[in-house]
Specification:
Blueprint (H helix, E strand, L loop, with lengths): L5 E11 L2 H11 L3 E6 L2 E5 L9 E5 L4 E9 L2 H12 L5 H12 L2
Parallel strand pairs: 1-4
Antiparallel strand pairs: 1-5, 2-3, 3-4
Length: 105
């Protein structure tokens, strides 16, 4: 793995049993803007975000992390990251799941 392969974290999907209350928190307390709502999800962005959204809130029975996006410098960097992580015994199963999702969405 090379320094700088992971450029930055992208968006995050948070699961919440209280979608309206969670949305109000992110908008009123944190000052985020609601960009869109689709199905059981609300898309939010902060000031200066250049992506469509940085937080996706999705209604679910239990709170949790739906997913977290990472941005790599390029496809070779992404591959190096996954090779590095899959060689770590504690992280290998999770990394393989993620790699499978990327290859077979």
């Amino acid at each position: 793995m090379s320094y700088g392969d992971l450029v930055h974290l992208g968006h995050v999907e948070l699961l919440t049993p209280e979608l309206e209350r969670s949305t109000r928190f992110f908008v009123e307390a944190l000052g985020m803007e609601q960009e869109a709502a689709e199905g059981q999800s609300v898309f939010l962005r902060g000031f200066g975000d250049y992506q469509r959204y940085s937080v996706k809130l999705t209604e679910a029975p239990e709170p949790g992390l739906g997913h977290m996006a990472i941005r790599a410098r390029d496809s070779d960097s992404l591959e190096r990251l996954f090779v590095h992580v899959t060689r770590q015994p504690d992280f290998a199963p999770v990394a393989r799941e993620i790699l499978d999702l990327i290859q077979h969405p």
